[in-house]
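Researcher: Structure for this, please.
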Amino acid sequence: MADQQRQELVGVFSSQERADAAARRVRDLGVPEELIHMNGHADKEAALRGEMRDELERSWFSPQAGFLLTKRAVKGMLVVSPVAIALGILIALPFAFLPWGPLPLWGRLLAVVLLGSAFGATVGFIIGGEAEKGAGAPLAAERGPALRVGDTRPEVREALVAEEPVRVDVVTAAGSPVGNVTNESETNDEGVFEDLRRAWDEPDRDAHNRHEDLSDR
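Model: Predicted structure, token format:
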């Protein structure tokens, strides 16, 4: 039981070259060869579990409202919503100068500001949420080789991070996630608007995968 709870590191890299370089780094630190594993099925599975756990911990979930917002989606909303609200107010502002109803000018100005803000916030919620690539986007373990190291010393963690991994997680020997060391959202220099562009440009992988599943029958 104690052996199963021993902590290890599992990292996913963008290329085999970076994974090999990370493996050389940890060997240079004196990590035994038997504690270094590459691209095993259990390693990929541990990386997937770590990413799913990380996503849940970084998400906003409301069972009453029935929605879940990931960190990427919230970041997109926070960036897009102020712009959308400002545009909504500007678009609605001319209507305040038209004589409609018994409201004085200040009342009409207040009304169009509130309506424009509500409209902009709704648009920002919808468009900003697209920064999340969705369930059809490839997970980290699907995008590159996985390297598992049975040593969690700080210098070993730094060696993995030095090779710019997609993500690095701490897991037990049984593959259960314990915590995250680094992930792409922390090291990615791209901003929200790049995430939005990629989300709109990429094809619908869910529909593509469903089509492939039906074709195999």
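Researcher: Any notable elements?
Model: The chain has eight helices and seven strands. Confidence is low (pLDDT under 50) at residues 205-217.
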